[in-house]
Amino acid sequence: MKKALLLVNQHSRKGKNLLSQATVKLQALGFDLIVESTNRADQISDTIRRHQNQVELVIVGGGDGTLNCAIEGLIDTKLPLGILPMGTANDLARTLKIPTDLSAACQLIASGKVRLIDLGWVNGQHFFNVASLGLSVQITQRLTKDAKQRWGVLAYAFTALQTIWESRPFRAQINVNNQCFNVKTIQIAIGNGRYYGGGMTVAEDATIDDRRLDLYSLETKHRWEIIALLPAMRQGNHNSWPNVRALHAQEFEINTSKRRPINTDGEITTQTPAIFRVIPQALAVIAPA
Q1: In 3D, which of 255, 249, 261, 10 has the Cα closest to residue 125?
Q2: What structural domains and CATH numbers belong to the chain?
Q3: pLDDT in tens, 182-235
Q4: Burial class of residue 7 in the structure, from the number of CB atoms within 10 Å of its CB (0-12 exposed, 13-18 middle, 19+ buried)
Q5: pLDDT at 15 (0 to 100)
Q6: What's the pTM?
Q7: Alpha carbon of 18 to those of 35, 43, 92, 95, 99: distances in Å?
């Protein structure tokens, strides 16, 4: 019988309703569970550290923000991660092809197939999916918990459309591989995984274990161009559009004349000036090969 720590964020979109279902399903699959439901995401890593000698695996139920809060604890304990997608966007689960159906996600965890994935890092903060500045920070600031609970992934689209009309371009300096780019941009996003923001694609060929970061900068002249770009950004082929700068590297440095907040996996956690790095094969996750 495998001992596992089951952590569920009760504030995630489906967390409260699914905790008891997940417990029953995982026990039926042969797991001996220590169940901890958390109302405070910032306690997740401490809970993982506290139980590290009692379990072989950490199972986290929640969305991308909850999973991000588990990173430090997982790095410190080197315990593998099982994911039960219970959030609004579930972009990490989408990147890893983890089913959103609870029974199927539990079955996948029971299969025990572990793969190593990369992490992104910016100014001491780790992230799974994407770190960004500009438009997406404004969307994060406007996107209420109530809207996410009520509208799900559509809340991202509604909020994005509202925010685009009020967005203002800013100047930034991107340093990469001994080159320097001075840009006037609406948004800079640096992706480690493939999906972010409720199913937007960082780059067409991005994977979460390719040992690189993918950067794009939206250097559009008119707001309507961003609206026209949205379908391409879902497909991931926006990098071939004019006024979109695409770069790939293991490290980026970004400076702005005034400090600008940076969003990591949907939470504002740091600000410019910023150094971004990829940390290859940093975490073990139970996911399809």
Answers
A1: 261
A2: 2-112 (3.40.50.10330), 125-280 (2.60.200.40)
A3: 999 988 999 999 998 778 888 889 999 999 999 999 887 766 566 666 656 666
A4: buried
A5: 62
A6: 0.87
A7: 13, 20, 19, 22, 15
